[in-house]
Write a structure and sequence with these properties.
Elements (H helix, E strand, L loop, with lengths): L2 H81 L6
Amino acid sequence: MDATTIGAVLAFVGVLSGSVVAYLGKRGENATTRMNSEIDQIQEERDGLRAQLAARDVRIGELVKQQGEDYVTIARLRRQVIDLGGDPL
């Protein structure tokens, strides 16, 4: 082989390896973009769930407060039944 043929083969190999590197690089870029998109969606879902959890905690607090008020009302009514001569069971 003469120098021209060797140079052409080396140039061909260089072009092929450059193409392979560009192809793999683009696939990696696409994979990174997809992963970022998925992570963004997960974070949005997490934020929504946190808001639901906060609303649930507020509702639980309201129910606990109402339960305490109900116990006070029941005790008052039992006392009233006893005062009126009844049996509160």
